[in-house]
Amino acid sequence: MHLHKYEKIWLVFGIGSLALFLAVLGVAAFAFGHQPPSHMTTVDSQNLSEDPLFSEPGLTQINESTYRATLIAQAFGYNPNKIEVPVGSTVIFEVTSADVVHSFTIPGTNVNFMVTPGHVNMAEHTFNEPGEYLVICNEYCGTGHHYMQMRIEVISQ
Amino acid sequence: MGKSNLEMKTSTITTKNKEDHSSLKGTLYFVLFVGSFILVSWFAVFFLYLSRI
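ok -> structure tokens follow
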């Protein structure tokens, strides 16, 4: 098969770009542990009040600077709707939905994931700047969607 | 009466500027243009992600 010289150039360019993208993502995932903001843990969304993880949603301290925030998203808010952590804390968010698909988005950070009923949706973030962080839902979930929000207070010590 | 002399119109056969239809130079430039746009935007998004970690 005859390939024009230019065709060879752009085939190398295209395949090389794909290889480069995969290499960068592979190194980020396997060497630096950048995982997508979810995993496969499931939960019974009809029975959250009896679930060991979600019966008492809130903030628990794991170690000196790491917290786990267990949150339930539901139309149209989050439970609890405010958490407080000291500056420099890493917070592992574990969020599920009690009804429809919501999202959990902290603008200006990498925390932006869908909250699907039946799944424990996870992400973690280290809060290095004190202040009040807004959390919003960016999956249209009903007539009160635009009111759906919570706050994360990052307190300087 | 002067019969207008029909001037023989020398129809100059315009030899159409024969393009080489097998030339892929334009295609190459455009492929590289689109490719570099994809490459630059991919890295822009990736570095935005890294800056927010």
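The domain at 45-155 of chain A is CATH 2.60.40.420 (Immunoglobulin-like).
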